[in-house]
Structure formats: C-alpha cells, structure tokens
Amino acid sequence: MSEMSEERMYYIRAILMYTDLTREVLFKVFKFLIKSEDIRHFLSSLEQQNKLLKLSKKHVITQSDYNLVSGQVLNLERFNISLLLKLVLNLCKDNIPKPQHGWESNLDLKDESLGADLLRLRDVRNKIIGHRADAKLSKAEYEKTWANIKAILLRVVELVDLQSSENFERRIDGYKQLNVDTENAEVKRVLDELLNYKTEHLQEKVEELIRRSQEFQEYFKTTPERFVRYIKLLFDGGRIVLCGILKTKLGDQDLSDFLESKKEMLIRNIDEKFIRCLYPQESCSDYKNWDVFLLASVLLLTCDDDLSQSDIMYVKRIKSARVNYAALALQCLDTDDFLTIWTDLITCLNHLSNNIAKDDKKQVEHLIERYKKKYEGGCDDEEYLKQLRESGDEVKTLNDVYNETISELKDMLNQMRQKDIKLKQEQVLEFKLLTTCENEEFKKIAEDLLETNLQASIQKLDQLSDSLRKETDKLVASIAAHPDVEVKQKCIILSCKCSTPGGLLHILDVTHGDRFRSTFRNIANELHYKYGYAFLIQGKCTLESVMSVSTMIYKCKSEYINHIYRNRF
C-alpha cells in the first residue's frame, strides 16, 4: 500500500462515498420525478431533445454533455453527478418542491425540501471537488462534511425510495471503514474520474470566463470614451428612427401578421441568430427590442418600395456602422477620423427623422445633443459594449480587426527590414495583461501577485522562486530575447521599447505565438492551484500602441518612397 497522509485519506473516503452514492441517488430521483424506470426513453423523446438543445445553446450543459444525451444510444454509465443534477433541475423542475426562498436565494438551514437538498448536493460537489485544489480534509472538516452528505442522501432516499433507506444508511457507514489504497482498482477508478471531472469543470469555468470577458478591456488600454458615446447614439437614436419607419410601414397591420407574410424571404436572407428574435417560440416579437442591425435588415428587405433612394442609402449606412463597429472603434482613436464618422451618423439620423413622429424626432435631437458632450462614463457603458458582440456572422468583431491590423503592421515591418529602412525614433508597443476570475476578491489578489512576479522577473530579483515566478520569467525572457528590445512594467502593462523593425517584429511574433498563450494557461493553472478558483489570463498589444506604431511606420515608408522618387528625377 502506498503511503498517504491522514488528511488525504479522509478526502478520498469522502469523495468515494459522495461520488458513488450521490450518483445512485440522483438516478433514483430522476426515475421518481419522471415516474418511469426508463430514463433513456424519457430523454430520447422529441420534447426532451428540444429542451436539451436549448440547454446546450444557453451553455447550461457543455457540448460534451450534450453529446452524451443527444446520441441515438444513451450510455447512462457515463452520466456523472454534474450532468445528472443539471438534467434533474432543468428537465424536472416543475415536479420538484422548490426551496422556501426560491431557486436563486440562499438556502434556509431548516429547509429540507427536495429542491433544497438537490441544491445542497450541488454545493457539496463544488466545495469538495471543484474548489478543493489540495485534495485534503482535516479530521474536523471530514466529520462535518460526512455528516452533512449522509443527512442529505438519507432524506432524499427516504422520499424517493423508502424501502431501500435502511440498507442505504449501512452502505454509507461502510465507506468509513474502507481501506483506502491508491493501488486499489476501484480507488484508482474514482480518482481518475475525479481528475477528469476537475479538468472538465475547470475548462467549463474558463469557457464561461471567456464568454464574460470584456472585449474592449482586452484590446484597448482604456475604452475609447468617444466611441462609447458614438455607440450609444447609434443604438438609441438608430433604434428610434428605424422603429419609427417600420411603425409607419405597418400602419394598422399586426407585426406578427406582417412577419408571417414575409417569413420565407426573411428566413432566407437573415442570420439564424436573429430569426429567433423575429419568430420567438414562447412570445410575440417586439421590434422595439430588436438590434439596430436587425431593424435595418428587415426594412431593407421588406420596405424598399416604400422608401426613397436617399432613405435606403441612410438605412444602409446605419446598418454598415453596426456591422463595422470594430473598425470604427479603431478610427475613433484619431480625432479627425472620429469627427468624420460622428458627423455621418448625425446626418443619417437627421435625414431619417423626417419620416417619423414629431415626438420621436425631438427625442433623437435630444440624444444627439446629449452624446455630443464628453462625459466620465456611465454605469450602463458595458451593457452597450456587450451588445456589440451579440450579433450575426456579418459583423466583424474587435478580434477580427485586431488580427487584420497586426497582420498589416507585420507586413509593413517586413518590407522595411527587407529595404533596410530605418526607424526615425524608438517605438513602444504596450502589452496589456488581463486577469478574469469567477471571484472578484481573488481576481484582485491574483492581479497583485502577478504584478509583483512580473516586476521581479523584469528586475531579476531573487526573493520569489515559486512556480508562478518561473512562468513570468519565461514570459519576460521571451520578449526580451531580442537584443534591441527593452521591457519595462507599469501595473498590468508591459512596455516594450525598441528602435528597429526587427525588434518590433520580434515582439509581435512572440506575443502572438503559441508558446506565449501556453504560458498564460500555465499562469492561470498556477493561480487555480493556489486559490481554488478558475482564472483566465489574456494578453494583447494595446490597439492604441499598435496604431501609433503603424502611423509612424507608414510615414517612414512614405518618406523613403518620396526620397527614392526625388533621387530618380
């Protein structure tokens, strides 16, 4: 038998009992709630398959879980506790007595309803599996956890399968006497399942963090204030004028009837994501809640005979502004370019306002005056920016524009290096590190720790030598490997200074390479092991610094070409 600490043994015993018996109990609950022994038949029905597809699209269940429940032959042996809880709580919720304070509130300690106990089983799973990075339990923790799990399981079994409750209690107690040996086949099986679950659970958490990550924080040093004003006017003002035109088009006709008469054409020409807004299954569509892109698309497809050529042109320009938001965000960094796109939007809104009610027109005029003024930001700014990503395939994201911009910059730098064109002055690319965590308190702690380690790596200090420091050493060393590159740090920004095209190319190649991304994953893992929460570490050259360098490179190339031209003639 391999040596094992007492705390490790306690943890494994608790895990073995919990995973084996909770899974068994959840199958009993499932059969009890669906009033059938045939879970496969229940899940295979068209009604349940439609529900499962919705759960997958809403990311309630992962893609791997959906594959398990949507196959032609369902293998129940592969259903783990996490999946079973999700199935029971989402497919059978109407048959479960809900907790006293509801599904989303904190549980009352005296609440012993089935709904409350199912949530407790989920919480136990998260505490001792999802958030227990050290895989240990003290004796006090072990006794408390064991008593808690036992009480919950017995209550549930007595409700759904009373005849087996007495024998079930003996089985629970039997696990306390279990000889825990990591060489034992059964113990190894459970530990392997635990490792797989932890990996899948962590990946699921990271995917959720990616969905939650704020696009503009990732690509810009600071979110462009004037672009936020532009987007607010585009969304608020654009929605008013486009809704007003559609309202005039509808007249007395009901929206549902109108959409139904155009259904074949709209389905053929509009992105599937927006079709669900036009034809919702559980309610009536309301055009006042549509995205500006969808409003413009519907008008152009259905009302072109009722609109003048100039109206059509301005509706198209509003749609184009929505589609190309990322490119416009980049343009907003330049004052002159911003003035051009701002003026164009106001022209569109003023022209189209002539087709809507007077009160709506006044509202648009008020919005224009309001968003002309510079302000310090509002609590709803992020909501507007978040809407930008909730769009169809036609819309270019910041990631698309960022990759194009980096590619163009690298092409110009390669041309400069090949023609031996010198930089006029030192250039700085700023690299921003962004930390995201499911727990805001530990996010701040991790950011401070990462900042300290980066500073130690840059200054080559000796006081920090753990696994996290090794990763930040690799990150800094990879950027500073080029003799022309100097790395400095200010908070979460790495300032990379160099004076040659080759140095700039090195920075771009390294910071956008697979090894760099692998280092980010390693740092996130180290933070997870340390604090028990999922972390996402991202890094990009800020678009402000990329555009600044691009502008300088373009000037150098232009002056070089002019110099060659003058010497020839």
SSE topology:
Layout: H1 6-34, H2 39-44, H3 46-57, H4 63-70, H5 81-91, H6 114-130, H7 139-160, H8 165-174, H9 185-212, H10 215-219, H11 225-250, H12 255-261, H13 263-269, H14 272-278, H15 292-302, H16 309-323, H17 325-331, H18 335-352, H19 358-372, H20 381-389, H21 398-418, E1 427-437, H22 440-459, H23 467-480, E2 486-490, E3 493-498, H24 501-511, H25 514-531, E4 535-541, H26 543-568
Antiparallel strand pairs: 1-3, 1-4, 2-3
Description:
Helix 6 (114-130) runs antiparallel to helix 7. A four-stranded antiparallel beta sheet has the order 2-3-1-4, with helices on both faces. It contains 26 helices and four strands. Strand 2 (486-490) and strand 3 form a beta hairpin. The termini are far apart. By secondary structure, it is mostly helical. It has helices at residues 6-34, 39-44, 46-57, 63-70, 81-91, 114-130, 139-160, 165-174, 185-212, 215-219, 225-250, 255-261, 263-269, 272-278, 292-302, 309-323, 325-331, 335-352, 358-372, 381-389, 398-418, 440-459, 467-480, 501-511, 514-531, 543-568, and strands at residues 427-437, 486-490, 493-498, 535-541. The longest helix has 29 residues, at 6-34. The mean pLDDT is 83. It has three domains: 6-211, no CATH class; 217-396, no CATH class; 420-568.
Précis, in short:
The chain is 67% helix and 5% strand. With 569 residues, the chain is mainly α. The protein has a four-stranded antiparallel beta sheet with strand order 2-3-1-4, with helices on both faces.
